Amino acid sequence: MFVRRENFSQYIKYYPVVSLLIALNILIHIMSLIPIIGDNVFGLGFGANYLIADGEYWRLVTPIFLHAGLLHLLFNMFSLYLFGPELEKIAGKMRFFTIYFIAGLMGNVLTYLIQPPSYVSVGASGAIFGIFGAFAALVYYTRNTMPQLKQTIMPIIVISLVMTFLQSNINVTAHVAGMVTGFIIGLIDFHPSRILNWRLKEKR
Asked: Structural domains in the chain?
């Protein structure tokens, strides 16, 4: 399920939203490395609670597309590359983007509400944990019909949560809030009655 066998062109064709998000994150990171321009890109985009409190509300969104370094970027984009396609295929393009974006946004909103004014963060982790949360909702609905999904994704979710609390310099609030947000949206989107409606519309 999470083993990618597509070539580059197939991957872009089958999973356009995931591909666009990966490309956008990489492009913004490259821009952030350019002298002068990079300082402005990062300076105007990183999530800083004290600046959000001053009215710079765009910082609730922009940190989703910024990363603290190459390893940070690679780790998040590899997770998106690996786990995003299956959810995009199941949920559809718009629903997948909604899960990703709202989970990332809520991660930053809760970070602003819970963490101190001096707290600063960047990264797509909250959005990616939203993907995990949506998968958890799917597991809830298919626990009796698709046990292999539960066996595959739940250990990944558990390990990711454990690592969240064990590693340093991790925005725990964004991770947990993103996952809970993804789970709630998944419970709504993947409800059996809605899945049935999707299938009926596809047959028309």
From this structure: 8-203 (1.20.1540.10)
